User: What shape does this take?
Amino acid sequence: MIRGYFYQPNSSRVQEAIARLNDSHIAVYADDECVCESSVETLQVSAHLPGQASELTFTDGARFVPLDVAHRWSFQSGKSSLLAKLESNLVLIVCALVATPVLLYALLFKLVPGIAVTAVQTVPDAVVEQMGQQSMALIERTVLLPSDLSEKEQAAVEQLWLDTVSQLDLSAQKYRVDVYRSEHFGANAFALPHGQVVVTDELARLLADNPDALRAILLHEIGHVERMHSVRLASQAAVASIAIAMLVGDMDIVAEVVLGSGSALLDLQFSQNMEWEADNYALAQLHRLGYSGEHFAQALESLAELGEEHEQSWLKYLSTHPSLQERIEHARSYTPSP
Amino acid sequence: MDSTSTTTAAEPGSQSTPSQLLFTGNGKEYFGIWIVNLLLTLVTLGIYSAWATVRTKQYFYGHTLLDGHRFDYLATPIQILKGRLLAVGLFVIYSMISSYFPLVGAMMAFALALLVPWMINQGLKFSMRMTRYRNIRFAFRGSYGEAMVNFVVLPFVSIFTLYLLMPWVLKRIDAYIHSNIRYGDKPVQVQLQGKEYYAAALLVMLLGILMMMLLGLAFSLVGGININPDELGAVNFGMFLIVPLYLFVISALQGIYQALIRNHILNNAQIDEVAEFKSTLAPQRYALILATNAAAIVLTAGLAFPWAKVRKVRALAEATQVVLLPGADQVLDTAQQAESSFAEEAANVFDVDISLT
Assistant: This one.
């Protein structure tokens, strides 16, 4: 005899009731009158939750909820209690506490970049071309201005570029350089995925007397294009967003903050790795073409000197790039692997 | 309360005593559920998250009791999983397009604004339909046009009034949401006052400015010692403090606003002949709870989350009373008949939450 509430189907009416269970038959009585009976096979029993009685739902939608919150039915399947057992198992909880951060790290920092790198190989050239052109259109509209450099200065950059590209046996049609004035970027160069490299006026002026240093920077940018870094970043972002969307489904705000900063860190680490890759590409090509890492080191030093005057942009530079000092030392000590 | 009485109508004017909303869950039990959910979600690469959502909701709904009867969460994990996969799929396509084709992505963002009202309506509909009390499901009947006006057009317009219109817009949004909720065949009615929203917004803004000034003062005093550009460490240390302090202050301000607005909504809402609501949430107490919750979560790297969530839900329940009127026994469930399968699928995709308590 189990005391509880009987809920009538599709109505808010509730009756205090008593359930009697005989073998595989259950009957519910309210005011000494049988209001519902059924064989236990046709009953639906609710999930096993701590502190909540397991309720019975009859085929017509009527329900019986025992008053005793710890009540479980003898005919309830053991499967539903498994989770509840796990959730109150101290050993498992401790294991979960250790395993969760480890898994989160593995997922975000190993699996996601792994999938992203694989996904890059499937991106068709036409998509890369579009991606580059559309990004350039946006950047050009927002932060780039026509160059202030004289025809001669521009031609010097262009000539240096053509020499470098032909020395590398790369397609001069795909790889092209443009000079723009930009307050946003300062002395800088950046590469777009489809092979367009942008050099700012400030950078061209800064290295005007040292064309080999500028060549080293251009090689670094070509390295980004050759290694498809932009495409990898985009695919990384896409894969990370899938992972996060799936995980956050149930993790509330905290997890969002943790995962959000995790993925920001990830972006940072990813972009730092890419800088190293582009550096190594530039250094290897410098050696192959008969120049040395010293030229790259000089270029970085010029940028570093500039940096001290603009504390702000220098800090910004630090965040996505490895420390300049480290990169300069790396450039000086670089020996090409055979 | 004698629920067996069928149509024994109450004498006019006889008010039942208010029933206290009870929350009977505890942090220890929920911690177990939470950590197991997290672990299984990670192990299954997110698939288990649907089961985790259902289990968490079942725990919280089932531990919320009114007049001795618990609330029920009815969605099945498969329902949630299907919707989530579809939503995630769409989201992936969207983020791929916007990262590979930035120009097309910008246009898509605009198109998405047209979908927002639909998503909000279907989301509310879904979460209401999945909520049951005493064999009666809740329902939501909103229209696309009204949702468009309230959630997209008016907030956009308020930008041009320097957000002076915003409290009024928020009032309209709350009125829209609550007056379209139904308990079975009985609609909820609310009478909201714009001035309450303006008062709450003004109070929170003034407090916010005050707190910012105090924090600024404190930091310039602390920072004054290390105004040395070479010491990057000092800057980082400052950043380390700013984030938790910011969270603490924001949570406190949020608590004040939410408490004021919640009291206003519930104290002016009723379901005809079924229930009247009463909320006595003290703003300063709720602010303290939310702020210390945020601090505890940050300081324990997230481990205090289950405790914090239970603490918040319990405080909300403790501040809520419901007067059940005689008609509470005679509500009929109609929500099930009025749903097309399309609406269900659509609602499944975007299971937007709004909290019940």
In short: The first strand of chain A starts at residue 2 and ends at 7. The two ends of chain A are 85 Å apart (CA to CA). Confidence is low (pLDDT under 50) at residues 308-318 of chain A.
